[in-house]
């Protein structure tokens, strides 16, 4: 197995563990009587663990090495599944398991992206970002798809998906542990205050106008769009037949569509990362309008094109953001810059909580129309702000 594939396999397994929970939302509601607010809060607990872990993992990766941090994240991902397996539908288990899964993801994604980039140095510019995005998308899509099938037709729906993830982690761990890490841990510099010197460089990188006017405004849609598809819509639109497997299928379709659009996104990025971003925002507009129609008409067939559009939004915006960050962040700053991008992107994981909280004030269908209008406004707004902002020429991918 190639070195970059070993690192990518860790991101794949962590992504699998992070998203296998999605189709099980219906299991907890139907079989265990867990309320919708508890389930959506458990889903949001993932983001609560992920965001601080993202910010701290870059510093730990600089000091101890990226491989060590990613390996620790792999262990934490297994611990999260073990907690959910042992705790069942208990409130504390749902919260703790999702929180630990968020910490694992936060520890893996920033350093993992930088690690894959270093191991892909001979594959040309942008290869590392694309490979990291593919590994993440494959895990995000495969986890809920398999979990939904297992929970629908096999025994122990609240246990078997987690056992599969634990076995997958055990199979991948030896390859990750032995993978090379080209970056040398800077223990001496960190002990002497080198991390204080790194902060101004990272701050300067994040003040690039591309980040302020293009990456940051659209980043929450990276996961806000697909989360709407697989965590919100199946609970709002009645699914006929095997609803748990259908929920897993919607999640798998959403995220695997995001995986399939990434090669075209790579070709679009040659014309400029802003072009890829505009297509991603256009996909968001279409997806949210289809979501509004599906809820308003109670028509589950519309969930299929909505999932594909929202998944395309995810894939296009993920590639655009990671490619742009990789383009202007230096080697020592890449893990931190990717972590900040992921922090903004993972704000989208609070979408189920927002929809539940606003349900009495603004019903889901009009809320999705508002989301589509916001994404539509971002298409010309980011272009105008980028052109009007003083500074260096825009990075064109």
Describe it.
With 397 residues, this protein is mostly helical. It contains 18 helices and no strands. It has helices at 3-19, 24-32, 36-64, 66-87, 91-119, 127-153, 160-177, 187-191, 194-206, 209-218, 220-236, 243-260, 262-269, 273-297, 303-328, 334-346, 351-357, 364-388. Helix 1 (3-19) packs antiparallel against helix 7, helix 3 (36-64) packs antiparallel against helix 4 (66-87) and helix 11 (220-236) runs parallel beside helix 14. The radius of gyration is 20 Å and the shape is globular.
Q: How many β-strand stretches?
A: 0
Kindly report the average pLDDT value.
82
- The geometry reads as globular
Roughly how much helix do the residues carry, as a percent range?
over 70%
Structural class: mainly alpha
Give the distance, in angstroms, between the N- and C-terminal Cα atoms: 29 Å
Share of β-strand residues: under 5%
Number of helices, where a helix is a run of at least 4 consecutive DSSP H or I residues: 18
Largest sheet: none
Can you tell me the residue ranges where pLDDT is under 50 for at least 5 consecutive residues? 187-198, 390-397
H and E string: HHHHHHHHHHHHHHHHHH
Radius of gyration: 20 Å
